[in-house]
Amino acid sequence: MADHGGGGGGCCPPMDLFRSEPMHLVQIIIPIESAHLTASYLGDIGLIQFKDLNAEKSPFQRTYAGQIKRCGEMARKLRYFKDQMSKAGLTPPVKTEAKCDISLDDLEVKLGDLEAELIEINANSEKLQRGYNELVEYKLVLQKAGEFFKAAHTSAVAQHREAVSEQAPEESLETPLLTDQDSKTDQGKQVKLGFLAGLVPKAKAVAFERILFRATRGNVFLKQAALEEAVVDPSLGEKVEKNVFLVFFSGERAKSKILKICEAFGANRYPFAEDLSKQEQSITEVSGRLSELKTTIDAGLLHRGNLLQTIGEQYEQWNLLVRREKAIYHTLNMLSIDVTKKCLVAEGWSPIYATEEIQDALERAAIDSNSQVGAIFQVLHTKELPPTFFRTNKFTDSFQTIVDAYGVAKYQEANPGVYTVVTFPFLFAVMFGDWGHGICLLLATLFLIFKEKKYSTQKLGDIMEMTFGGRYVILLMSLFSIYTGLIYNEFFSVPFELFSPSAYACRDAACSEATTIGLIKVRDTYPFGVDPAWHGSRSELPFLNSLKMKMSILIGVVQMNLGIIMSFFNALYFRNPVNIWFQFIPQMIFLNGLFGYLSVLIIVKWCTGSKADLYHVMIYMFLSPTDELGENQLFANQKTVQLVLLLLSLIAVPWMLLPKPFILKAQHNRTHQGQSYTPLEGEDESLQVETPHDSHDHEEFEFSEVFVHQLIHTIEFVLGAVSNTASYLRLWALSLAHSELSTVFYEKVLLLAWGYNNIIILIVGIIVFIFATVGVLLVMETLSAFLHALRLHWVEFQNKFYEGDGYKFHPFSFASLGDEDE
């Protein structure tokens, strides 16, 4: 049933798409104590569109600005929780229909406590993690730098032993000029070297070394060793490849320079003892602290995970509650407050059928809120144009969306969506006629419909979401494509004798080739669609071109006539006889006097088998209407009929153009004659609503504007009758293109690969054929035919009657709340 259909007591009439639901402007006076609950109940039924009675006020000047601010702050906290859950790798909570029992005030306190706790946990965790990363780096520095010192110590011991073993060294080039004994004489002048250890990013290591050398003029000794694995940088929190460095220097001045360079390059420095035993002791201490920190961090993460899990279980309910409350207060801000500040006044549009349901919701709200006074519901009289509301279901909604994309119907205007349900997939199928391709589309659509419940709750990509939204349109498109494919007798461009054998056979054994030469009719005419004998014959293309071209014109003339007839029903419904006599009748005469007559000639030619040239008939109907038709005559008195039709078509043009502006001017003068005094209103005068639209009734009638508008409208129709009829030839062109592409893929790919008698070539050919069929024929051709069918409906069909200048009915409804806050 309909989305908004349903309401107790059978108050809803059957769903009618032809005209929008009758609407009325209502006024509701709500006591202040029951305002919140009333808005909540009205949001549940979603059948009233409130008008903003405080349009002149800024958002901050409105009554419930503070409550909206509170809701916005709670929504921010919920977004923060969602962000933390996604970072922790928790799956998004499944949407639940269970209502939240907690009040908004309690939820505000709870969310504040949870946010404070989570922020504290995150801060502590970040601090501990930073300390842990620093200790990891410290341990690596101790290990790598310790290796430097061990290697140096081993080398020094080895040199000392060598010096002791050589008691009397011989003089050589390698003998030092100053012996140990000489150096000991000046021990007071020895310099104590200092050193710094740490880690520097590997990418900056070369520049770091160069700057150190230049800044100290080469008076440093630098040792570096690359780490095998990247380490987490304590300040960045990201993995970075680093080198351990050990730099020796002399003097405080050099030290201060090195410290500044380390800071500039983001090098982390760590304390380091020269004594080997102290180094081992430091490594042991650091390892112990690391294990303790790891345990503490794991416990913190477990606690954080449990907290987020608890939040996740009720996140959707809290989020729904906050969004509902925010929507309620947004709606209450649109209401005007009484001077006594004891009641709120609401105005809005609602369908007439929903009156009983709205009144029932108002009564329930008054009872549940223990209000001493109930809400007052009354209907207002206005000249303002109501919004347009069609009650659709999941099947008709996608077709209505196609129409609304062109323009929302004016209130109570005839809705082209009723006919679009059938004509749109049919016109698509005329261009896409192949029952093999239609079956492929059908299977894909049935899969989407089968997975409907699953996909409707998921976020899909843009293209997938559009495809899923139009699944029922594609379903009908595929079914109609199978039907037209059977008429064209094409299954991936291959004909089949489905309904009976071909009506044609060879005269003798010599005509085994697929050609019309030598074929004679031996059976009854093929019962449904095109005889398979036509496919592959020499005359296939001329025959199918003639058939599809004439069929396109017939379809176009029928649909354009339907559009003009719809304008008649619009004029009849809105009691506008001027449009009937001076728009509908001359348009019908002009269109059918020319192209309706052409359609009749096509049908007569098919029925009689005449060889008359219809191009010649139509051209000389204008150029030489009095000439004899000769062999192009299809029926008796054809010349007289043509003269009458041509004369009527010529008369129809000034008939459309001239009378209507003068009649409208006369009507305007008669309507506003003697309006110096206005009639007294009845007792409902207080309910009369002033609207901006009323002022237009008293404006000066601009005859020149009306005449120019009618002139443009007449020229557009006359030229459009020709161009729109020609536009329907796209049905023939795209059908031909689809058929020929399908034939090329079948003959030049599949059959060619089959002819090589090689299994590898055959497999490659089948793969290429599948990809070409899916990519070109099932995707690109489907999209192309869809767009062309869309154009035929929007331009050729709807411009005959559809104004599309209305505005859509957007009721206050919790069902339409978006997933994201505004």
Automatic annotation (TrEMBL):
Transmembrane region(s): 426-450, 471-488, 551-572, 584-604, 640-658, 759-780
Record carries keyword Ion transport: yes
MF GO annotations: ATPase binding; proton-transporting ATPase activity, rotational mechanism
Family: Belongs to the V-ATPase 116 kDa subunit family.
Record has Protein biosynthesis as a keyword: no
Taxonomic superkingdom: Eukaryota
Coiled coil: 104-131
Protein name (database record): V-type proton ATPase subunit a
Stretches the record annotates as Disordered: 160-183
Chief place where the protein resides: membrane
Compartment annotation: Membrane
GO biological process: vacuolar acidification
Organism of origin: Tagetes erecta (African marigold)
UniProt keyword annotations, A-Z: Coiled coil, Hydrogen ion transport, Ion transport, Membrane, Transmembrane, Transmembrane helix, Transport
GO-annotated cellular components: vacuolar proton-transporting V-type ATPase, V0 domain
Role this protein plays: Essential component of the vacuolar proton pump (V-ATPase), a multimeric enzyme that catalyzes the translocation of protons across the membranes. Required for assembly and activity of the V-ATPase.
Record's bilayer topology term: Multi-pass membrane protein
